[in-house]
Specification:
CATH topology of the largest domain: Rossmann fold
Largest sheet: 5 strands, parallel
Organism: Xanthoceras sorbifolium
Membrane topology: Single-pass type II membrane protein
InterPro entries: Exostosin (IPR004263), Exostosin_GT47 (IPR040911)
CATH superfamily of the largest domain: Glycogen Phosphorylase B
Strand order of the largest sheet: 7-6-8-9-10
Number of strands: 12
Keywords: Glycosyltransferase, Golgi apparatus, Signal, Signal-anchor, Transferase, Transmembrane
Low-confidence stretches: 1-20, 22-41
Main location: Golgi
Bound molecules: 2-acetamido-2-deoxy-beta-D-glucopyranose
Helix content: 10-25%
Length: 290
C-alpha cells in the first residue's frame, strides 16, 4: 500500500523521537507513524538525517525518506537584530571549537583531549548539563562564533544541531560524523559549504589541515553558506527561501507521473483498472468507513 498523503508533520523539538507523521494510506486509514523504528515503510520526514541510531539500526532510508534541517534558535535566524553577530575572521580567537558535552562519546572525548594539547588552536571545554560548566544560550553562541571552524562530532546519533548553528555564527562546519546525512542534497553542494573529515582521524592532523586553509578559502565557504542558510530556517510562508520550501521540493520529487504496482493494470484508452477491471476512479471502499 502506498502513501497517499502526508498530512501533518508534528515536530517536537529536542526529543530524539522528535518527529511523528500522520499519514493516510490508500485505504484512507490514518496512521500515526513514528519513523524512528526501522519498520517504518512510509516516506518519512526526519529531522535527523541519520543512518544509524543508538542501537546502530537504520532509522533513515536514503532512497525514500526526506531529511529536514534542525531547528536553530530563533534568536539567531530571525530577520533584524540577532542574539549575536558573527565576528570578522581576523578577530576570532581559535582555529576551531567544539562546544558540547562529551557524553562518553569517543570522538567528543578525543576533541576535549586534543584541546588540552592545543589550547590556543582548539576550544573544547568539558561542558556539563548544569552548574558553572554549562554555557547559557548567549554564551554558547559567543563561544561558537569565536573560531573559524566549528567541529560537529557524532553524539548519541550521527546527527548534530551544531552543523546548522554554524551557518548563523558563520564558522565553517566540520562534520566528524561519518554516517550523517543532510537535507536537500539535490540542491545543495555540501563540499562548497562544509568539510567532512573521517571521524577516526580526529587528532593533530585535523588541526594541521584546518590551519592550512587560507582565509580566502574560508571566506568563500562562509559566503556560500550565507546563500543557502535560509533553507535551514522555518520561516513564514511569505519567505521565498525557507526550510518549508526545501521540504516541498523534496516531496515533489517523490511524486511520480505514473503509479505502477502488481495490482495496477491499464487499457488501450488510458483507463487504469484493478484486477477486476474496475477503474480506480470508480473503485469504492469495500467497507464503509466510520
Ligand atoms: C476504456 O475501455 C474499457 C473497456 O472497453 C471501458 O470499460 C472503459 O469505460 C473505457 N474507459 C474510458 C475512459 O473510455
Amino acid at each position: 500500500m502506498s502513501i497517499v498523503f502526508l498530512l501533518i508533520i508534528l515536530a517536537l523539538h529536542g526529543v530524539r523521537c522528535g518527529l511523528v507523521l500522520w499519514c493516510m494510506d490508500s485505504d484512507g486509514v490514518f496512521m500515526l507513524v513514528s519513523c524512528l523504528t526501522n519498520e517504518c515503510r512510509f516516506v518519512c520526514v526526519l529531522e535527523q538525517g541519520d543512518r544509524t541510531d543508538k542501537r546502530d539500526t537504520s532509522a533513515f532510508n536514503t532512497w525514500k525518506d526526506i531529511i529536514i534541517p534542525g531547528n536553530v534558535d530563533d534568536g539567531m535566524t530571525k530577520h533584524g537584530p540577532k542574539l549575536i553577530q558573527p565576528l570578522p575572521l581576523s578577530r576570532r580567537k581559535y582555529l576551531a571549537n567544539y562546544l558540547g558535552r562529551a557524553q562518553g562519546k569517543a570522538g567528543r572525548l578525543h576533541l576535549i583531549e586534543l584541546a588540552k594539547q592545543y589550547p590556543d588552536k582548539l576550544e573544547s571545554p568539558e561542558l556539563k548539563f548544569k552548574g558553572p560548566d554549562k554555557l547559557g544560550r548567549l554564551e554558547y553562541f559567543q563561544h561558537l562564533r569565536n573560531a573559524k571552524f566549528c567541529l560537529a562530532p557524532r553524539g548519541e546519533s550521527s546527527w548534530t544541531l551544531r552543523f546548522y548553528e554554524s551557518y548563523f555564527v558563520e564558522c565553517v562546519p566540520v562534520i566528524l560524523s561519518d554516517e550523517a546525512e543532510f537535507p536537500f542534497q539535490n540542491v545543495i553542494d555540501y563540499s562548497q559549504i562544509s568539510i567532512k573529515w573521517p571521524s577516526n582521524r580526529i587528532g593533530p592532523q585535523l588541526l594541521e589541515y584546518l590551519a592550512s586553509i587560507s582565509d580566502e578559502d574560508i571566506e568563500r565557504m562562509i559566503d556560500h553558506g550565507r546563500q543557502v542558510r535560509c533553507l535551514w530556517v522555518y520561516a513564514p510562508e511569505s519567505e521565498q527561501c525557507s526550510a518549508m520550501q526545501g521540504i516541498i521540493w523534496e516531496l515533489q520529487r517523490k511524486v511520480r507521473q505514473f503509479h505502477q504496482s502488481a495490482e495496477t493494470f491499464w487499457l488501450h484508452n488510458g483507463s487504469v483498472v484493478n484486477r477486476d477491471l474496475v477503474e480506480f476512479t470508480n473503485w469504492k471502499h469495500p467497507l464503509p468507513l466510520p
